[in-house]
Amino acid sequence: MRIALLSYRSKAHCGGQGVYVRYLSQGLAELGHEVEVFSGQPYPENLDPRVRLTAVPSLDLYRDDDPFRTPHPREIRDGIDLLEVATMWTAGFPEPRTFSMRVAKLLRSRTNDFDVVHDNQCLGYGLLDIARQLPVVATIHHPITRDRAVDLAAAPWRRKPFVHRWYGFLDMQQRVARRIPKLITVSSASAADIVDDFGVSPDQLHTVPLGVDTTLFRPRDAPRIRGRIVAVASADKPLKGIAHLLKAVARLRLTHDVEVRLVAKLEPNGPTEKLIAELGLADIVTAVSGLSDELLAGLLASAEIACIPSMYEGFSLPAVEAMASGTPLVASRAGALPEVVGDCAELVEPGNVEDLVHVLGDLLHDRQRMRRMSIAGRARALETFSWPAVGARTAAVYQQAIERHGRPSPTAAAARP
Q: Which residues sit opposite 6 in a β-bridge?
């Protein structure tokens, strides 16, 4: 099959989207499919050599070194650029919509180059233009309505209108999702939430769990660092529950020698940095960001415990990466996390600091239990999550979309004399 894989931002470990693009495209290539990734900034890194990258430049308004920047007038190329900057100036998030419009323009002249188009959680109006010419499949990792609900609950009243405005793209995503016949999601919990929040039919959804590179994320020979807890958060947001972990660690340090490695890009003088200072944790909490996969894998394998204190997760790649690394896992009983970890993790009530203190403390005292969890987590990762399997199941959904759209099947076309 010839596959166009779309992702409005794709750098690995600035979020799960980048990991998904990198490894799904590799898994599909290993199965013999031709994959071309169309991505906005930040672009994916270390794509498989068999995968082609087509850059879809935006105004890059949220670059790490200059977020919410005002572009120079000479940078404005067309009406899509004007829409992008105007949406940012009015406190909205434009990327899903404007990326979809740009890639729709690119694909108008390339409809004969692809058998299917796969969107990675953009769900912009441009997809509907593409769907008139080509079969379209879309992945929804989880409904962003859940992020909005948690952010609204955490925001002071004067900030709530801005939170509503930032998530203004959700109305578009809901409308577009209902018009894409074939949708992929990553867990049954996420599928149920998408049906509830987006109003799609259960018949549209196909559950395909994510995978992990078990040759990279693996236990190491070096001994683990006593008392080290690692938490990975793709964003410095209330949804990720980092504040609850920090409050638990502030109490835990009274009885245990602990240190925390927080893999997240913290907002300068933001709520997490302020909380670290208020709790007096600066000596034992270190935040790092921009790690390569190799460094992240080494960090996870160095820890005694990995913790995912999220208020909601549609899947959680960090949970799978921790299990593959043989690192005992403590996770919230929230969203898809119980489904992902099975019986290989200790579960706590989301937002319950007392529960987190108790479970972390007990686990740090019980080395045999940690060893059993390490073995069980590694075994689950090997048995359940692999990217070639993800690629095969995803390709099966592509085939259904192609047949429904009425285009000649690539399998049948290849068989013709």
A: 38, 119
| Amino acid letter, 360 | L
Whether pLDDT at 388 is above 90 = no
DSSP 163: H
The span from the CA of 62 to the CA of 94, in Å, is 11
Burial of 143 (0-12, 13-18, 19+ CB in 10 A): buried
Query: What is the C-alpha to C-alpha distance for residues 156 and 43, in angstroms, rounded to an integer?
Result: 34
329, β-bridge pairs: 306, 345
Whether residue 146 contacts residue 127, with contact meaning beta carbons closer than 8 Å, is answered with no
Token reading at 390: 């993800």
Q: What is the pLDDT of residues 369-384, one digit of tens each?
A: 999 999 999 999 998 8
Output the six-digit token pair for 163.
Answer: 């939170």
Report the sign of the C-alpha dihedral through residues 15, 19, 25, 31, in that order.
Answer: negative
- For residue 63, what are its two tokens? 């670059």
Most distant CA pair in the chain: distance in Å?
A: 75
Neighbours of 395 (CB within 10 A): 18
Q: Tokens in use for 8?
A: 């409005």
* d(C-alpha 238, C-alpha 235), whole Å: 9
Please report, for residues 236, 302, 307, 366, the alpha-carbon distance to residue 220 in angstroms, rounded to integers and kept in the order given: 29, 8, 19, 20
Report the C-alpha dihedral over residues 284, 286, 292, 296, rounded to 10 degrees. Answer: 30
As a whole number of angstroms, the distance between CA 93 and CA 372 comes to 45
- Take residue 58 and report the two structure tokens written for it: 């935006």
All domains of the chain, ordered by start, with CATH?
A: 2-211+386-415 (3.40.50.2000), 228-384 (3.40.50.2000)
Q: Rounded distance, CA 327 to CA 345, Å?
A: 10
Q: What is the pLDDT of residues 291-328, one digit of tens each?
A: 888 999 999 999 999 999 999 998 999 999 999 999 99
What token pair was written down for 111?
Answer: 């409809």
Whether the CB-CB separation of 411 and 360 falls below 8 Å is answered with no
Q: How far apart are the first and last CA of the chain?
A: 18
